[in-house]
Amino acid sequence: MTSYGWWLIAFAVLYTIALIFIGSISRKKSAKGDGYFVGGRTFNKWLVCFCITGLFSGSTFISIVELSYLTGISAIWYGVAETIQILIIAFVIIGPFRKKLVVTVSGMIGERYGRKALGISGAITAFAFPMWSVATAIAFASAVHVFTGISLSLSVAFTALLLFVYLQAGGMWSIAFTQTMNMFVFGIMFVIGIIAFFINPGIAGLKELAVASPAMFEFSSVGVQVIVVWFGTFLVNVILAQAAFQMALSCRTPEEGQKGLKLAAIFGVPFILLGTLFGLSAAAVVPGSSLGLVALPQYLMQVLPAPLVGLFFLGIWACALGWGAPCQFSGATSLGKDVGSALYPAATPQQLVKYTKISLLVLTGLMIIFGAIRTEQSAWWNILAWTMRNSATFAPVVAALFWRLATKEAVVGSMIAGFLSGILWYHLGGWLPNQFYLNIHPVWIGMSANIVTIMVITLIQSAKVLQVNLSVSSARKGYVALVSSALLLLVATLFFKPLYAGGLIGIFIFSILILWFISTIIFIPDVKEKESKHKLNVKHAKLNV
């Protein structure tokens, strides 16, 4: 083991001890009411800010470092898409969700559509989260691998076990305290990274890189399809960002949550800019690597002494924890609380906490297994997780919020159809992280199937009692959605070849279908009579038992 490895391990162990100590404090706070799942809903704007910054900006920093090493400044678009997501959640989502006292997305689906929907959505959501955790943990694992020679798989296992230890203690309070500590570590990492940049390559080195590789300084070098997928994924994720909701909705009031999210958007700017700078610096000093997260420690080893490199990668460790801890905890909440409630409806709050702690152990095991299967491809796990979760839960969440007509059978059918369609499409593409079957990203196929299924089954089941509203004055938005879908269909038809070549046909198909979904919700909002609606719901309730 090199001296760099000893310093890195020493800092990681000390930080681990501090986190475990925090866990013992947070255990007392989590014992009160719903403190384990949502921190007793007592977080102020700063705690919300720190939690969201650690979740989104920490993971974004890791992604941008790797992307900017490989593709240049176009990686900034990833951060822009993530920032827009945070702002939309702040201005549009946090208020209504806080008033509904939402804990999880799967819980919201289950509350509206029954135990079967709760169990299916909770299970799919839960098993997606360890995949996201693995994807980010690989960043720290790469540094450990370079400095110590320890395998990537063992390093991921170490990360998973740490998450399990301190999340067991205090749930959401453990996350809040840890994210607060992470903010200080992030600051240290940024200072050290800036020092490294000015030592080598400096501004002159970036100018030389621009001459040698001008594509690295083009804002579209990563590819239009990839950029569109980033924005599309983050925009869709606005109503599905369960881990973010669980932290932000732990706020005292909706106003506190909104302030915290706005602050997090501002705090995220340095993560975007400096992540790009550090990735470009590594590309200038250590070119030619196929793995940006491996090139970064190799670059810093050439520039800084071992103690400073160790401190820098303690920041990467904090990024991995900042994303992985909320993901593991939110997944465990869906599995323990939501699936537990679906299987055992008479379970007490104390039993649900127990189920959640057991679920943490299960997801820890899954994270270790995932890390052993594909440690070198973080993008692969991200795509699989997005495809699984979004393909199953997108349309049901929209229906739960805006379409009371949707039936329980339609919701369950849409989750199954969306999930299977997305996974099948990924399989047809050979499970590759950057090349997809028919040049269409599997998440667009899965969510499209999700939307079509929920509409078709609902309309068929409710055909005899549908209330149709075609009034130009009250259903104007429905006509706007239809006209917009027609325009998109015309563009897709006229420019099919370039859109297909650019990998944009999938998002066009999804956009057209979501506009049809919107128009259907507006034109057919309910059933004709309250009595008919009551009979329909009674029938569905009996079928659900």
Automatic annotation (TrEMBL):
Belongs to the sodium:solute symporter (SSF) (TC 2.A.21) family. It is a multi-pass membrane protein. PROSITE patterns: NA_SOLUT_SYMP_3. The chain crosses the membrane at residues 6-25, 46-69, 75-97, 118-140, 146-169, 181-199, 219-240, 261-286, 306-325, 355-373, 379-403, 410-428, 443-466, 478-496, 502-524. The keyword Membrane applies. Keywords: Membrane, Transmembrane, Transmembrane helix, Transport. It comes from the Bacteria. Its main location: membrane. It is found in: Membrane. InterPro entries: Na/Glc_symporter_sf (IPR038377), Na/solute_symporter (IPR001734), Sodium:Solute_Symporter (IPR050277). Pfam families: SSF. PANTHER family: SODIUM-SOLUTE SYMPORTER-RELATED, SODIUM/PROLINE SYMPORTER-RELATED. Gene3D superfamilies: Sodium/glucose cotransporter. This is Sodium:solute symporter.
